[in-house]
Amino acid sequence: MADVNRADAVGGWTRVVTARPRLTLLLALLFTALAVVAGSGVGDRLSSGGFEAPGSQSSYATKALAENFPDSQPNLVLLVDTRGAGPDAPAVAAEGRRLAAGLAADPGVSGVSSYWDTRAPVLRAEDGSSAMIAARLRGDDDAVAAEIKRIAPAYRGTHGPVSVTVGGTAEVLHEMQTTIQQDLLRAEMIALPITLVLLVMVFGSAVAALLPLGIGIIAILGTSAVLRGVTGFTDVSVFAENLTTALGLGLAIDYSLFIVRRFREELSAGAAPRGAVATTLRTAGRTVLFSALTVAAALAAMLVFPQYFLRSFAYAGVAVVLLAAAAALVVLPAALVLLGGRVNALDLRRLLRRREPAGEAAAEPGSRYAALARLVMRRAPAFAVGAVAVLLLLGLPFLKVQFGSADDRQLPSGAESHVVQQHIRQDYAASPVGAITVLAEGADAEALAEYRARVAGLPGVVRVEGPVPGKKSGTAYLTIVPQGAAVDSGPQHLVGEIRGLRTDFRASVTGQSAVLVDSKHAIAQRLPWAAAVVGVVTLLLVFLLTGSVIVPVQAVLLNALSLTAMFGAVVWVFQDGHLSGLLGFTATGSIETSLPVLMFCVAFGLSMDYGVFLLSRIKEEYDRTGDHRTSVVFGLRRTGGLITAAAVILAVVMVGVGMSRVANTKMLGLGIALAVLMDAMVIRTLLVPAVMRLTGRATWWAPPVLRRFHERFGISEGGDAVHGEGGEAPRSGERRDAQPAGRS
User: Fold this and answer.
1) DSSP string over 283-351
2) What is the mean pLDDT of residues 414-423?
3) pTM for this one?
């Protein structure tokens, strides 16, 4: 053994973590209990909107219209089925007027427009089978959500000669929020047992398999408490709940796998539990910390966007990543100190090993990945070109992506609001909730009449209603009914045409199409900043870990390349509708504008997670030997199985999320699952060794100035200092030739 005193020395942070492990676990239990209390009811405080861009023209116009013209932008629709009698039948008309009057008298409703009061053709089905009552619910997203839960049950169902179903954006968002919460619970019930079985298979020990679940529970419950606090200051999207569960469990498994694997290596080499934890934290623990920082940086980049839908994922993502890392670096080491060798207890794979033929030697852990690394490096150009070509080919469908916004078609085909909106699309000239609205301020009657005529003459305009004057002099609004659905390209183009008209007064355009146009503009404007945040932080952290200027660039490029298959599949499946019957969703011909940004940040962060694990072991061996090829083989042998196992388990968790009945959540879960598997099985096992073989020893090059900077501030898994290209002998207590106690 090397210097035992150095190996078993527990100082600094390790002493804090391991000196009183029982107290550490007790405090963790107390923290979890407090998190349960603090995070209770967080689901009821989350919002289902957040796709609009604050400060945009559409945002301003929406608020101004809500204050001055409460009936101008309906978000609730009552579809009144006349049961064959027709809307103009006396009994039907009387009941329609009664329903509209009751809705207008409700304090939560600011404006009502019905076919029986206005005789507007847009509110009557072309075949006369039904008619509509459109209304505006008061308040922001949270207030509207509360009102729709109260109002919808009172009007839904049979009323004398008619039957009523509820639709409109308010009901769509309410059903979406309810469905997501139900699906999340179902995903947890399905994914957790499967994950536990996989963990037992990967760890071998049932005791070790339970450790990641404990870390994940701490991270998930802690993040719920954080989100509960954030909702006191700003809006948080209900979609963030899905990310909390998936990332909390997935990263807890990643970090636990890496730490327990290294702990087992140290135990197998003869170290005492406390010394094994010390070495584990000094090596694998630092890698986990770097990995968490890279994932958190990728998720934090969403804070640059103004939409609270994206910002919500930053709040949830950064919190769950840091909590998962903190639990893995504090709670897990304390548990390992107490367990010691019992971490390998209840090895359920002994039954399988007993059935192996006598005299058949077990393969060395990681030997298959070592053999694969040698094969790839012998044929590096072919593997590099082939893998890149395949990934780019899989990503080609993304070149024809069309961006849109979420609507009722995100919901299952049997959802009430989806049925209502589909009926409106088929049987009505236009939807009252899909119109374009123009707020005119400082305009006289003559100017408004001229403006109305110019708007009516634009291509794609079906009808112009108004202007409707307001109480304030010179203020009015016009309603433009466009051809096609609000999320189609035609209405979006029409928004630009209307905004391009020169006027002597202030004309502000809003409506679903305008909100979508402004949201796309806001994302495009901030996207370079988000990419810069992700790129710069990733380059810096990987440089601090490796001391190379080549490796960080390789890491960023290869990570981005790993996402091509995900983006191509998203367009091919969810935009174009392939496999829609099998997966159970309605294709809309577009992708929600915010989702590719979200999926990029999450998938890129997770790819860096695996990249840091692999690079840290390669760098550790290169510092020790100075042999580039051997170091790459060593790194893949030690981490290939671990990364693949972690990716498969995380993919199972994400597929559980992807079983949601809401199309956007389905896209998020399945897309990230695909990206994670492609990264683990193609990028880490094929492209990384191929590219590192092609760059050779130049992989570790850095200018003298940066090399000196890294020698002073850099951190490597090998210990407290970093070595130059020539490498040094391994530090005492590091046993790189030891085999793990279990195959993880």
Assistant:
1) IIIHHHHHHHHHHHHHHHGGGGSS-HHHHHHHHHHHHHHHHHHHHHHHHHHHHHHHHGGGGG-SBTTHH
2) 90
3) 0.84
